[in-house]
Amino acid sequence: MSDLLWQPAKERVENANVTSFRRWVNDKYSLNLLDFTALYDWSVAEIEQFWPAIIEFCNLKAETWGERVLIDGDKMPGAQFFPDARLNFAQNLLVRDDNTDALVFWGEDKVKSRLSWAELNIAVSRFSQALRAEGVKKGDRVCGYMPNMSETVIAMLATAAIGATWSSASPDFGVQGVVDRFGQIEPTVMITVDGYHYNGKQHDIREKVRDVVERIDSLRKVVIVAYAFDGSDTTGIRNAIGYEAFLSPFEGEKITFEQVEFNHPLYVMFSSGTTGKPKCIVHGTGGTLLKQVSEHVLHCDVAPGDRVFYFTTCGWMMWNWLMAGLAAGATLLLYDGSPFYPSGNILFDYADAEGMTLFGTSAKYIDALAKAELKPRETHDLSTVRAMTSTGSPLAPESFDYVYRDIKEDIHLASISGGTDILGCFVLASPVLPVKRGVIQTRALGVAVDVFNDDGKPVRNEKGELVCTKPFPSMPVGFWNDPDGSRYHAAYFDRFDNIWCHGDYVELDDEGGMVIYGRSDATLNPGGVRIGTAEIYRQVEKLPEIQESIVIGQDWDNDVRVILFVVLRENYELDTALIDKIKKQIRNNCTPRHVPAKVIAVADIPRTKSGKITELAVRDVVHGRPVKNQEALANPTALELFSNLSDLKK
């Protein structure tokens, strides 16, 4: 399928957490698992042994895990892991209490701070006491309208410590977007900032906060962190109090961790919401902990003393994923702001300054670095960076080339994919396997990932639907306000009975590697033949003239025709010669069916707050259908560029 780009050194394989785990499993269960593939096969064949092994190997704490591992294991949805367990999520993240770094924060070039493990424990203790004094209890909701900064981590951990439920959004969200999310779950307390920094500028959000608070009646207290300003002017925000004033009555006493059920709601996550009000996806305490810790420790090789970074906002599930790095005893490196201010070097400056070991980011960021022709390997040391992970959209083969050519030669590059739906990954990294160009390395341990064709039969080396054939702990507990579970069932289980169908169009090779071709619901069907949009992007965005692209299927003449929109780089124009070049590139490297019927230049492409391009929203605009929730978009005005185009009427 692909070219070999990286092979882990023998010493690295020998010292990897997953190698230790495999040997430990062999001893514990009297097995003879010889390699990672054998470990994966065992982990999905024996899920009732695998997940307890994660608990024991990773030293996860609980008042009790109970005797039963899984009940109704033949039902999806309906299966329940550890039905008798009582545990606390925050207790499993606050694993240290010393003077080494727990959190380091950079807010562009404006703010830098760090918090030791001892200081983090004290801060969580004080915040949890303040929440309890406010009457917040198990099952209540606390929300963060926050940047990715230390106070956000403190508030989340304090919320989890008392058994309440956390939900967050980033401060660039508009009022309607926040109300559409938090308004559904009726939070008691909200923590927010007075403003934030982006691209070197201060953005005041106090007026937005005031409007949000006026529209969410359930809020009893609004805690305001001074970040972009001094925090003193709360501009008439109802029930507002400064962060320091909120904590001031409380000392850092020993934290009381409320023990909750395995499926007790820990997080409420939100779908992107571009086709209507966002769905509220409820994730349980135990499932989130087990899944995310297994990924950090076994797949990403995170160990105590590592320094883990993910470029993410609090509106993207990768923020929640990053938090679990604490459970492995790692330092979290937090960043808020533009990754290109004051230059495209800022995150690599951060990597060198703080000894970053895991550099997590998005495929779009790597592509943007390549387009900007940055060569970090020539300007930075990066000797501590062992691994780089990428998600958000498929990582193009050319981006693999770029990383190994221009960032670092000896690096474990891992394209990973899963999502908000499972707060983790279906396919991701393995530090003991080779990296092949354009291929995701492996399926997630303990998750029975397969690929089905349209007839519901498993296939290899053939495109089909990404499915999961057995239950796993981080399946959502359910959707908010979905009492009979019908919306939850419709989202994942309608396509194939008793099988999770994720909605990704993929191909699995004989070695367990995967290529993702795009979302199934954005898959193009010209002449009834399914085409993944990522296949087209890979070809178009190789061209030096093209900054970015988005492709949709337009209903036309009782069929579907492929329409490609391109954003051109500076000093280029879309003339006949360039259109021909684009079509030839696609035809030569894909198939004639992939070639767009129309190529149209646009100034911008709409994207969600987490940076994903919104094919479905563009398709709706092109077909004259309303986009129901434009607040979910980072740049909703871009939709106007696709409306009533004369080229699409002929």
From TrEMBL:
What keywords does the record list, in alphabetical order?
ATP-binding, Ligase, Nucleotide-binding
Q: Which family does it belong to?
A: Belongs to the ATP-dependent AMP-binding enzyme family.
**Top-level lineage group:** Bacteria
Task: Tell me which residues make up the Acetyl-coenzyme A synthetase N-terminal domain.
Answer: 38-92
What PANTHER family does the record tag this protein with?
Answer: ACETOACETYL-COA SYNTHETASE (PTHR42921)
The answer to whether keyword 4Fe-4S applies is no
- One Pfam family linked to the record: ACAS_N
Q: What is this protein called?
A: Acetoacetate--CoA ligase
Ranges for domain AMP-binding enzyme C-terminal come to: 542-612
Q: Which residues form a coiled coil?
A: none
Enumerate the InterPro entries for this protein: Acac_CoA_synth, ACAS_N, AMP-bd_C, AMP-bd_C_sf, AMP-binding_CS, AMP-dep_synth/lig_dom, ANL_N_sf
EC nos: 6.2.1.16
